[in-house]
Amino acid sequence: MEFVAVDTETNGRAGEACELTEVGAVLVGGGELHDRYESLVATRERLGRAIQRFTGITQEMLDDAPSPEDVLPEVGHLLRGRVMIAHSASFDRRVLRAAFARAQLEWPDPPVLCTVALARRFAPLHHHRALAPLAAALGIEVEVVHRALPDAETCARVFCALWPKLCAHAQTVAEAIAVTEPRRRRRAPRTRIPMRGVQRVDVSHLPHEPGVYLFRDGGGRVLYVGKSVSLRSRARSHFTAADGELPEWTGQAESVDYQVTASELGALVLENRLIKRERPPGNRALKRDDRFAYMRCRLDIAYPILEVASEPAPGRAVNVGPLRGRRATGELVEQLNSLFQLRHCGRVLRLRPWASAYGQMGRCLSPCLGDLDPNAYRGRLDQALGLFTGAGEGGARLLEHVDAQMRAAARERRYERAAWLRRRHERLENLLGRLGGVLRATHARSRLVLAPHPHGACRFDTFWLVAGRVADWVPARPLPPHGELRHRTHTALATAPEGRVGDPSTGAFVPPDEVDEVRIVAGWLAAHEEVPVLDLEDEPEPAALHAFVQNARASYGATAA
C-alpha cells in the first residue's frame, strides 16, 4: 500500500462552524517522503484574531485562496486507494469529511492510521504525544508548527520512524488498524430505544440556516428543543446515531418545526427561552461553557467575599466576567483579597479568639475577631469592586492602583513594600493577559451587539444589552432602519435602573430566571471578540450610530459577496 500523511488547519471553531483553512499532504512509500501538496482554502466566515495568531494564517491570505470546491477534488484524488495517516487522525478525518459534505463531494473514505495511536502502542515511554514533542523524542527535527504541510511532513517522518515496529506486529492494513485501536472497557448497557422501529421524522423542509428546531409528539407536545447553525443537518443527526441507538424521545417524535435566527447567538438565546417555557423531557440541562468563569460578590451578608463561579450570581450582586480560565480567575480573587485586605474565608463567618494567618500578615481586616465595623469593611470592598464597575477597563485601573501604591511606598521610604508591590504589578500584568477580554462588571457595560450570520450573509441579530441583560432583540432580518435603531437604543437605555449600574455599594439585580441568559450572551461575546459591538456608556450620537452600522454593513457585505 501507499500512504498519504495529511494535516489540516481550521478556523478554530467547534462543531458545524468548523471550516478548513489549509490542507497539506505528503506521499509516503518505501520509508521515504515523495510528492507533496498544500493549499489554503477560502472560508465562509472571517477568521478570529486568536486563530490568526495561533496558525499564522491571516484573513488576507484566505481572501485570495481557492474555494473548497477547487481544492478538495485534488485531496480526494490523493487519498483514493491509499492509507491516510494523520496525527490525532479522528480530528483531521472529521474536518475533511465535513468539508467534502459541504462541497457536495464524495468522501473517498480511506483506511486511517493515527500516529498518536502508533506512539501509544510502540513508543509507550514517550508520554508527551503532541506532534512536535513526539517528533523531538524520536530524533526528528521540527522547524515549523501549526501549518499544514510542515505538520504533514513531521507526521510522515514519525510514521516512518515507527514503521519497523508496526510491520513486526501487523502484516495487513486491517491488522495495523486493529493493533492501534484502544482497548475499550465494557460499559453497562444504557436503556435506549434501538434505531430499528423508530419512525424517522421528515426534516427536508428545514433550511440550512441558523435557528432553533422543536420535535413534537402526536399531540403537539414539545419533546426536544435544539439549536444549530444549520437546522436541517443537525435535526437529521438525531436519527443517525453511530452506535445504532437513539435517545428515548425519538421514538415518540412525529413532527418538527423551527424558528430561524440570523446568528448563532440568536439561536442560543432562543433555545434557552424555549426550553424554559416548554420544559421538554429531552432537554435535561443546558450546555455550559467551562472555558469561562465569573468573579462575583453577593452583597447579601455583612462582610461579603469575592468568589469564583461558572455563572453570574442572581439577586443583589456584582459579577465580573466572563473571564478566561477558572484557575486564573481564582488567582485574581486572591490578588484582590491581599491588596484590599478582604476576607479569604467562606461566606459563613466564624468568630476567632485571634486573627487568622492572613490577618497576622496584614492581608485581611480580620472581621472574624468580632470588633470590625461592617461599614469599614464595605469601604474596602467597594474600592475593590469600583475598579470594575466604573468607567474604563478594570484591568488597567487595577494596575494603576498598584502603581500608585508603589509610588506612595517609595515616597515614604518603605522600600521593601515598594519592591513587593512592583513584583505584584508584574504578576498582575501576566495574569490579566491570561484572563483575556475586558475586565468589567457584567451589569456595568451596556452594549449594542450585531451578531452576524455564520455563513457571511449581510444579516444580523441585533441585541441591546443593558445592565448585563437582553433589553431588546431584533432577530433574523437585515439591520433595522436608522430611525428604528435610534428609537430602540433610546428605549433600551431608558430601562437601565438608576442607582444600580456601576455602583458597587448597591450591586445589580439579575432575576434568577435570567442568569442562564446573561451567562450565554456574555460567554458567546467573550469567545467572538471580532463581532461589531458599540459601547453604550451614554446614548450615542446619530452620526456615531450611523457610522457603526455602515462599518458593519461594509465588512459583512464584502464577506457575503
Task: List its salient traits.
single chain, alpha+beta, Nucleotidyltransferase, domain 5, four-stranded antiparallel sheet
Describe the structure.
- It is a single chain.
- The chain is an alpha+beta fold and 561 residues long.
- It has four domains: 3-180, Nucleotidyltransferase, domain 5 (2-Layer Sandwich); 193-278, GIY-YIG endonuclease (3-Layer(aba) Sandwich); 292-435, no CATH class; 442-560, no CATH class.
- The chain has helices spanning 49-55, 59-63, 68-79, 89-102, 115-122, 131-137, 148-169, 173-180, 231-237, 264-278, 326-340, 357-360, 374-389, 394-411, 415-435, 482-494, 515-527, 542-560; strands at residues 3-10, 20-29, 32-40, 83-86, 112-114, 193-194, 211-216, 222-228, 245-246, 255-260, 292-298, 307-309, 315-324, 447-452, 460-466, 469-477, 508-510, 533-535.
- The strands form five sheets. The protein has a five-stranded mixed β-sheet, sandwiched between helices. A four-stranded antiparallel β-sheet has the order 12-11-13-17.
- α5 (115-122) crosses α7 (148-169), α10 packs antiparallel against α17 (515-527) and α11 (326-340) packs antiparallel against α15 (415-435).
- It is globular and about 80 Å long.
